[in-house]
Structures are given as C-alpha cells and as structure tokens.
Amino acid sequence: MKTSPRRPTRYPCLQILILLFLLIPLFTTPSLADNWQKTLAAAKGQTVDWFMWGGSPAVNAYVNGYVADALAARYDVKLRQVPVKDIAEIVSKLLVEKQAGKNRDGKVDLMWINGENFRTCKRHGLLHGPFAHQLPNLKYVDTEKPAVKNDFGEPVEGLESPWGSAQVVMIYDTARTPEPPRSVAALIDWIRAHPGRFAYPAPPDFTGSVFVRHLFYHVAGSVDAWQGDFDRQAFAKAADNTYALLRELAPALWRQGSTYPESPVRMAQLFADGEIDFSFSYHQAEASKKIHDGLFPDTVRTYVFDEGTIANTHFVAIPFNAADTAGAKVVANFLLSPEAQLKKADPAVWGDFPVLEAGRLPEEWQQKFAALERGPATLPDAVLQGHQLPEPPSEILIELEKGWQRKVLKAQ
Amino acid sequence: MAAEGPESPVIVRPATQRGVARDRQPPSRLTHLLLLTPALLVVVGLFGGGLLMGLMQSLGHIPAAGLQELSLGHFKGLFSDPDFVGSLNLTLYIAATATLIATLLSVGLALVLVTLARRHRLLTFLLQIPLTVPHLVVAVAMIFLLTPAGLFARLAVQLGLVDSIQAFPLLVNDRWGVGMIIAYVWKEVPFITLMILSVLQTAGIELLEVGRTLKAGPWQRFRYITLPTIFPSLSAAALIVFAYTFGAFEIPFLMGRTYPMLLPVWAYRSYSDVDLMARPEGIATGLVIAAVVSLAIVLAHAILSYARRRGAVL
C-alpha cells in the first residue's frame, strides 16, 4: 500500500506509452479477422433459411448433406434449405415487404440468385450489404474479373457472394476436326468453308442465344462497352450488323439455315450422328459427361476461343430484412471455402465449377483441384478461368433473341 | 331379453326392403347428381375454371402484371399477323392430312382384320401396342428412324438405294411436315382401326350375306352395307384424331421446323416468353386451338347421336 501512490510518478513515460498503445485501435479500423470473429460469435445457434431453386437432386443433396452437416459441426449454424420453383417469387415477396416497411425479422436469410433477379433486388434496395468483402474466403476469388465483377451486366459491388460458375465451351471431335477454329472470326470462316456442317439451337433457347451473343461481341468489337449502362444507338447498330452476319451465314448452316435444332440436346445428337462437326455447351463438363454416357466418342474434346467465351457466375445474397445476417455470412463464407468448392466440383456430387481462382489457392489445394477427375474432355480451371467473357445485361440478351426471330429466322 | 326377441326381425326388415327397392328402381336424380359431383367438380372446376381464367388473360386481364383493362386486341393482333395465319393454315394442313391418311388406312386395315382377328387374337393385341406409346416417344423414335443420319437413311446407303446419307430425302423438320404426318399416322391408325373393328364385329356378317344373295359385288357391298355401318364411328374417330393432332405439342416441337411453327408450339413460345406482355397472346393462341378442337369434338358428338337416333350399330 505504501508503494502504490508512488508508481505513477516512478514510470510516467511507460504509462503514457501504454496508454498510447491502447488508444491505437480507436483510430484504426478493427482487422478483418477480428470482425469475422464477431460474426462467427453472433452466428452461433442461428438458423439460416436459405431460399433456393430446389429442382436438382444433386444440388439439394450437397446443400442438405455436406454443407449443412459441416456448418452445424463447425460453426453451430443450422442450415435450412427452403426449395422454391423460381427465386423470382421470393424477390417479389421481398419487394412487397419493402413497400410495407417490414425492415427486420424477414423469413429469408440467404438466397441463390443471379442475373435479372439480382438487378431487381439491387435497383430496389432489397439486399443487405455490401457484405462480400467481409468474407475471409473471398480472397481466393478474382473479384476484378468482368465475369465475377458483373452479374449479367449489373455491377455486383459486394452485394452478393459468388458461389459457382458456368462457361461456354466449344465441343469438337479430334478425329474429324484435328484443328478447330480457335476464335469466333476463324469459326465464321470455317462455317463458310464447310457448308452444312454447323448448327446452333434456335434462340430463345439458352444455348443458341449465347452463341448469338458471341457473334454479337465479335461484330461489335467490344465486350466491356455493354457492361452497366450502354449506348443504345451503338447497340442497335451492332445488333443489326450481327443479324446481317447471321443472315449471310444461314445458307452455309445445317439444312441451309431453313430450320434450326430446337435444343442443345438435338444439336449434340446431330454432332454425335456426324451431321454437323461442332456442338457447344454452357456447361464446362458436358462433353465429358456425354463421353462417359457413351453418347460421344472418346475422341471428343472441348476448347475455348482465344478471345474467351461467355461465362456467368451464380451468387448468394442476403435480403435487406434478413433475421440472421451473421449466420448467412458464415454460410456464404463456407460455400467459398476451397473444401466446399472442391466437393461441389466433384462430378459425383454436383460438378459445378469453382469460382476460386486456381492461382490464388494454397499449393495443396491447387493440387487437390488439379487432381479432381473431371473427365477427358474437360479443360483445366486455369484455362477456363483465363478465358472468361462477361454476359451482357439481360436487356441486350432479350433484344438479341427477339431480333434474331424477326431479322434472321423470318428473313430467310 | 325375451321381449326384445321379436323386435330384431323388425329392425332387419326395412334394410331388406330398401335393398329390394334399389334393385327394382333406378337411383333417383339426386343420387345421380351426388355421384357425379366429384367428377363434375374436377372437370368444371379445373378445366372450365382454367378456360375462363385463360379467356380473361387473353383479353389482357393480368392484375399481377398491372394489366387491367379488357380488350380483344390480342386476338385481333394474332389474326392480323400473317405469320399466325400461316401457322394456322400449316397446322390445319398437318392435322387434316394426317387424319385423312390415317382414316383411309384404318378402313382398309379393319376390313382385312375383321376376318383375321377373330382367329388371331394376337393381331388385335399387336394393334393395341401403339395406343400405349406416348407421342413424345413416337417423335423421338421417328427422328432416329427418318433423319438423314437415321436408321433408314443408313440402310438405304447400305443397300445402294442412295449414294450418301445427304442424298436421302428430308423427312424430319422438312417443309411439308412429312415426318410429323408419318408419326401421327402411325400413332392414330390403330385407334381408328379398333374403333371401326368393334363396330364391324358387332354388326356381324348377316347383312353382307344378304347383300351377296342379292348379287351385290364386293364394291357394292362395301359402299352400301359396310360404309354406312361404320360411318358414324369412323367419322367420330377421325374427328377426335383431328382434334388431337391439331392441339398436340410434342411432335411439332421436335419434328417441325423452327419457322413457320405449328400453333401449339406458337402458344408455348409466347407463353414462356421472358416478356410478360407476350403471355396474353400465348393464351389467345391456346384458346384458338381450344376452339378448333371443341368444334371437332362437338361435330363428332353430333354425328354419333344422329346415327344413334337412326338406330345404327355402335
């Protein structure tokens, strides 16, 4: 007791120093790791209601089995999948809740969206966040890449967290076409030189429609010009040029362009039957699957154009009035973990392609992804990810589909 | 206990009487109605209700999309679209041609089978098989058989009938809908044949024998005895087939050309269009199909009841 009053006078400098050190955190933002610890703590015991399209048994099994089990065991977060037929229903429900002023305790904690639905949500302020940058695992994703930075032409801005990716790949048979045309320009020349040997499904079929967009990008000479707000006059001009090119190509197509395959399934069948020499798919592993099923010969391979092929990323987002935002973030972060992405990429589980950039992963995970057996015709992640073009806004997509009907199909 | 003894038969008797009464009299109108209610609810409620809602939507009433006022604009728009009229004509052509060919083949087949089938039950059984095959399966099978890369084309090349599979005539996704007509004929011939066959078998051969005693030749016997006998069921069956082929979706979707498309495909395309505004047009197309189909069914019914009144064998 005697010494205590003397202490302050004995070490004044030290005390001031300690005080200064203690003050430091007040002037700097708390580190990402600290914040994440808080989120983890808040998420404990929460039940996350994840509203998502429930039409795929493989996806449902992955979510309800592996993901839910891991979340419960590691983070004490209970995941409840709420399958819906179309997430647009949920978006309109959120819109009504927003208008009614229901700003808290919403039923939806997480939803699986992309494209048009994301645009609607963003424009009407239906999303919580930006939150994606808070997720530690986002460091494995190249968020500056156009196909991840934008969701069908709408800048993501951290309002949704990437989950998986789909990309167009060209499918060919090495036995028939040893040297496939490696750019859109080369493909156009090839079609002219080989009349009747190429076909694409009639838009609005999704796969046929994405082929038209590749030609549109080629004719327009730019990809970035169509992201976000675009010049309408320039679009009209580029679109007309695209239709003109497609009209001019039609006589060199399968059946002289008098009819088109109604679906990618039919196109694949024509390809397998030897009526045409190319097929293509908006799924990177489609050709491997068809080889495995015995529908394509073993000599079939895939490739991407040198300038890239169109890819889109699918995301998860948190509604503005979600009750369990911390839990939802933990789920979104876990979905981005190398472990969960690897499991998801396994063709036996789901076969959805990772959004993680191979080069950003630790060495051991790179090897695990590389070792994943994806079939003989599937390209490595690095090749795919190095050749991704973003989707244009859905407005452009729809206009091209309609224009194709009017100015290509009916103008024969 | 003893007092209750004589009462027990009394309890039983009314039940017995009621049972007897049921045997003697047909059920009352009320019972009829009650028995029919479940089926009626389904048919009137779901089908009629759906039709009514469809009509409202085709008139432009979709409150969820903010479309409120009623107008015939969508129907007018359809009929002033040359593409729609072209599709309507193409659909009529396909349905009528398929029905006509199927009807002619069925009459011939039924005449041959009516004598054979009695001895060979297997034939009738074979004839029933196509009835159970869904149209979707028929369409896919026909694609495998008839396309330039199909079985027939390869067979023709093997036999030296054509030089290469490219030289094989276009039968699927072709201009004249040959593939579609073949698919429909294959599917509908057994149906019409079985319809007439049952009439021919119940009609017996007495009339024909009478005809023969009166020295009627084979053509005369067919023209004046067989044809009038089968005509009501034949035309009814043909109209049902026409109605079906006019409204069916699977075969034209898979075997038709991208453009011009048949009406059921048109309706599907408009209805599933990303543009919500195209929906009323899709439903209007559906209603045009429904109108043609209903007309065919009503005609079929009228022919049958007219024939029944005249005491034809059915």
Descriptive overview:
The complex is a heterodimer of chains A (412) and B (314). Chain A is an alpha/beta fold and 412 residues long. Chain A has two domains: 33-165 and 313-379, Periplasmic binding protein-like II (D-Maltodextrin-Binding Protein, domain 2, 3-Layer(aba) Sandwich); 169-311 and 390-409, Periplasmic binding protein-like II (D-Maltodextrin-Binding Protein, domain 2, 3-Layer(aba) Sandwich), CATH 3.40.190.10. In chain A, 45% of the residues lie in helices and 13% in strands. In chain A, strands 1, 2, 3, 6, 10 and 11 form a six-stranded mixed beta sheet that branches. Chain A has a three-stranded antiparallel beta sheet with strand order 8-7-9. In chain B, helix 4 crosses helix 8 and helix 4 (82-119) packs across helix 10 (218-247). The radius of gyration of chain B is 27 Å and the shape is globular. Chain B has one domain: Orthogonal Bundle (MetI-like fold), CATH 1.10.3720.10. The A-B interface holds A 196, 202, 204, 255, 258-260, 262, 266, 269-270, 273-275, 394, 398, 401-402, 409-410, 412 and B 83, 143, 147-149, 166, 170, 173, 175, 253-254, 257-259, 269, 273-275.
List the keywords:
heterodimer, A: 412 residues, alpha/beta, D-Maltodextrin-Binding Protein, domain 2, 3-stranded antiparallel β-sheet, 11 strands, B: 314 residues, mainly alpha, MetI-like fold, 13 helices, globular, disordered N terminus
Short summary of the structure?
The complex is a heterodimer of chains A (412) and B (314). By secondary structure, chain A is of the alpha/beta class.
Strand content of chain A: 5-15%
Series of secondary-structure elements of chain A, N-terminal to C-terminal: HHHEHEHEHHEEEEHHHHEHEEHHHHEH
Helix content of chain A: 40-55%
Going by CATH, the architecture of chain B would be Orthogonal Bundle
- What class, by secondary structure content of chain A? alpha/beta
Largest sheet of chain B: none
pLDDT averaged over residues of chain A:
90
What is the CATH superfamily label of chain B?
MetI-like
- Say what oligomer this is: heterodimer
**Number of structural units classed as domains of chain A:** 2
- Poorly predicted ranges of chain B (pLDDT <50, ≥5 residues)? 1-22
- Highest CATH level, the class of chain B: Mainly Alpha
Look at the structure and name the CATH superfamily of the largest domain in chain A.
Periplasmic binding protein-like II
Reading off the top of the CATH hierarchy, the class of the largest domain in chain A is best stated as Alpha Beta
CATH topology description of the largest domain in chain A: D-Maltodextrin-Binding Protein, domain 2
User: Based on CA inertia axes, which overall geometry of chain A fits?
Assistant: globular
